Amino acid sequence: MASNSDAQTYIVVLRDGVSTQTFLSALQTDIKAFSADTIVEYEHALNGFAGKFTESHVETLKANPDVKYIEKDSVGEAFAYQNDATWGLGRLSRIAPLPIGDKPTPNKFFYHWDPAAGSGVDIYVVDSGVDTTHPAFEGRASWGKTQTGTANKDLNGHGTHVAGTAISKQLGVAKAAKVIAVKVMEQEVKALDWVIENVKKTKRPSVVNMSLGGPTSQAVDDAVKKLFDAKITTVAAAGNDNKDAKTVSPARSPYAITVGACNIRDKKWSGSNYGEVVNIFAPGEDVDSTWLDKKTKVMSGTSMAAPHVSGLMAYLISLQSKVPQNFWAYAHVGVLKDIRTPFHPTLLLCKSMTELNDVAAKTANLLAYNNHYDLNGQAAFEEEINEGAALVGEVAVGA
User: Where does the UniProt annotation place the signal sequence (predicted)?
Assistant: First the structure.
């Protein structure tokens, strides 16, 4: 019998009416017969999945009456697959809910992404600082600005956790992006002022993650508007008080992408703020990420949800050969509009196949998603658009 090292990528198409999830569940329960290294489920283009299988696996699959046909996948290798990802990363690359059962296994989910995710983009983490020496950052984290009288050190751990979700090797969304630590205690506006100044110098596409907030502040809101004017994307945590985020700055700013938190079962995290200023939800409960002293830690909150979206925005920017002039308008205010011309087939911010539970009225019931399913590139995506049968509740970003 061939070893798993001999496995190649195949596309398995099931007969009409056969549930992909049911088929895969049966496949994975008989582990002696099958041991696929990676599985990519198709949601729209085909009824089936792709995976790495040995020749013996393929022969057994061919003998299954529910299988319509199997062929080698010549384009799937253009995408990266990770089978030891957090549930948050796994959820970002699926429309359908995670098939988790009663007791989910931590960090055993599949994450699918473009290897160029985040390349050439800086994410400014305005927070408690970042442990830039953590090996999970692979040298892609550096210090930017520290308030007078404080050291270039994260003494709290919060900022390190946030940065890990955005860019770290195993636990991060945009694995080629860079993080710049901006340590703040109280002087948020001064910190944002420095970010604008530094981006003017570097001339690099940039995202600001603000997993922090406080009472209504016109000064903070105005500073976020200045970031927008400087073509810098701002992502803000909605807040953790289970109340309307309209009284929280910078979450209430129309010039920030404001992120609420959900859990592994597609339910609003109990503490997440809500309301009309919340633009989108992302994984925020029991999120495993980098921590101090080269460790990891599980935390919950909209602070954990926001860097999932910051990573996705860096991902989006990095995949553009040329960023249109009006990109930033869509990246901020219009990011959740139903715009039919996508920037790139491998990233959308769109509605989940099933609505999140316990989301208050007048709150956007949307879940961040990176559109991994389109392994055939632009053509398949455009065909779906042209047929008027795009993703359920699709919210594409484009010009």
Answer: none
